[in-house]
Amino acid sequence: MQDLCRGRILVIEDDHDLGRLFETVLTIEGYHVTVAHHIYDAHRLLPQLEPNLIIFDWSFHNAAGYVWVDELRTSSQTAHIPVLLVCGVLPPRSIYEMLANAGVPIIEKPFDLIAFNRCVAVLMHPRERVIGA
């Protein structure tokens, strides 16, 4: 049977239960998902995975995470990979605007799974029309 994988997603999530939820939901949608529980693990896995999307569950007091996202956006090896931030609290307006200007969308928890899947589909397949988008 032909592999029907719609693309590769790297999820960075330190909560193991939430990581499993992301993995399950995205796998059902047809994506190959790898979950890293720390940005250092994600950084190590990034070259071998060559993901089409990075989903980062991030709290904005995590300075290392902020620096890492900035590195992803400015490196020639990773600038083409879309990043979706999932967070419990929206960042201060200045950071939110900076991320928006860099093309980094943010979804605030709790979130609707249908809206989440739609956002992932748009980031993974920007040229395809997403029903309901």
Structure description:
This protein is an alpha/beta fold and 133 residues long. It has one domain (8-92, 99-124): Response regulator (Rossmann fold). The chain is built from 5 helices and 5 strands; from the N terminus they run βαβαβαβαβα. A 5-stranded parallel β-sheet has the order 2-1-3-4-5, with helices on both faces. Helix 1 links the parallel strand 1 and strand 2 (32-36). The longest helix is centred in the first third of the chain and has 13 residues, at 16-28. It is globular, with a radius of gyration of 14 Å. The N and C termini lie far apart (31 Å). 24% of the residues are buried.
Tags for this entry?
133 residues, Rossmann fold, 5-stranded parallel β-sheet, single chain
Q: Indicate the CATH topology.
A: Rossmann fold
Continuous helix count: 5
| Through-space gap between termini | 31 Å
Looking at the overall shape, the CATH architecture is: 3-Layer(aba) Sandwich
CATH class: Alpha Beta
- Number of separate structural domains: 1
Helical/strand content category: alpha/beta
Short characterization:
With 133 residues, this protein is an alpha/beta fold. Helices cover 43% and strands 17% of the residues. The protein contains five helices and five strands, in the order βαβαβαβαβα.
How are the SSEs placed, and which strands pair?
Elements: E1 8-12, H1 16-28, E2 32-36, H2 39-49, E3 53-57, H3 63-74, E4 83-87, H4 93-101, E5 106-108, H5 113-124
Parallel strand pairs: 1-2, 1-3, 3-4, 4-5
